[in-house]
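New here. Your pick:
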Amino acid sequence: MGENRGVYWYLGNTVARVYFSVLTFTDVSVLFHVGQHFLKSSKTNKNKFEQGQTDEFIIEAVNIGELKKIRIGHDNKGGFAGWMLDKVEIDAPSLGKRWCFPCGRWLDKKEDDGQIERELFPVESRTEEYEKHVPYEITIHTSDVSGAGTDADVFIVLYGREIVTSQKSLCQTKKERKEKFERNMVDKFVLELEDVGDTIEKVRIGHDNSGFGAAWHLNKVEVRKLLEGSKGSRTYVFPCNRWLSRKEDDGEIVRELVPQQVTEEKVRKDGSTKTKEIKQDTLTSRQYKVHVYTGDVFRAGTDANVFVTIFGENGDTGERQLRNSETHTDKFERGHCDKFSIEAVDIGKPFKVKIRHDNSGLNASWFLDRVEVFDDDGEMYPFHCERWIGKSKDDGYGVAILLMLTFYLQGYEGDISSTSTMSTLHRSRSRESLKSGFSDTPSSLTRRKSGLDMPVFDEPSEEIYVLS
C-alpha cells in the first residue's frame, strides 16, 4: 500500500508551480528516487505559497524508509516566480517519523545564486519519532432520504479496548468535502491512525456543522483493518440510520456507534479467501443526565458556549456542547441548575469531568459550583468545582483561571488511566503525581472548601485538576 506523507511548507510567496522529489540512500553509492510531485492543492490555504504562511499537502508514495534528502524547485512561470523557502517538514505516520529540512534561501533567478531548485537535508536533532500508525479503510454510507447529504467537515475517532485514535477529518480539502457525502452515496477513505488493536469497540463520528446544508443523515459506517502479519482483514459494520443535525432528531451532530456485525477474511495458502463472522461482545448506548449548577455569586453566569466531556472506566463521551437546557431558556445564569441529556456508549462508572467554555460573549467568565452526572439507572455522581472559569476573573489567590477545568469524583479510588484517558495521556497525570505537585504551604495556593482539597498548579497549564 502506498504511504501518505504530510508535507508542510514554511515560505514566502510565489505563483510558479512548485515540485519536490524525495530521495534516500539504499547504500553508499545507490540513490533511490520516488519521482517528482507537483504540489497542487494546499490543505491549509486557498492561495498557496504566500508570504509567512504554512501550506500542507498530502502525497501518496511508496515506502522508501529513512529520508536522506529532498529536491524542491519551481518552474519559474508567472509574474512573481521568485520564492523564499524557509523549511520543509515531512510527516510519515506509517513510519512514526517527522523530518525537518531547513532551507532559508531564495529560489529565484534574480536573487541569491540564481537557482530555482535546491537539495535539502534533514536535521537529525529536529527529527521527531512517535508511535507508528496503521491504515484503516473507512466506508461511509449516506442515507437515501431527502436532504441527507452534507458539505460539513466530517471526522471520526476509533476506540479499541485500550487505545483510542486521535480525531481525524475524512476529507482533506473543502473541494473534496463538496464531492463527498451526497445522498445515497458510498465514499471510501484510507486513513493512517494509531493502532487500536484487532478489536474496535466503537466509533465516534460527527461533523462541525459548517457549510450550506450541514445536516447529514448517516446510514452506516464500515471500518476495515488488516490483521497482524497481513494474513487477512477484519471488517466492522456500525449502523446509524439517524440525523446528525442541529435541526433534526435530538439536535446532536456527533454519534457514537457500536458494531452490529464483524467479519474476518483470511487468505489461504492456495490464495483463496475464507470469510467468517466474529462474535464480539458489544457495548450498549445509555442516556446520561448532566446537571450543571452555576454558583450564587455576583456575575456568576456566562454567555459563552460550554462544552463537557465525561470520562468513565470504559471510555468517554467525547466533548459535547451543552446547548439546550431542559430547565432554562437563558442557561448558565446565577444560581441556576441547567439540565442536559447526553447519549453515549456505556462509559462505566464516571470518575472525571472536563468542562470548558470558549470565552465568547460579553460576560464570559463563569463561576461553576458543581456538576452532577446521572446514569440511566438513576445513580448520581457529583463533581464539585466552586471556582471561576474564564480569562478575565481571578479566584482571589493570585492564579489566572483558564478556560478548562478537569475534576474527579470525590472519593474515587479506581483506575484513571483506562481507555478513556488514553487519547490524552500526554496531558494527563496520575493521582499521586498530581498530589506530589502541591504542598500545604500558602505558596501552593491550595484552598479548601466544603471539606474538599482544591489544589491548582502554580504554573498555568492547559488543564487544572481539582482532586477530591
Q: What stands out?
A: The chain is about 5% helix and 45% strand. The first strand starts at residue 3 and ends at 11. Confidence is low (pLDDT under 50) at residues 23-34, 395-404, 417-468.
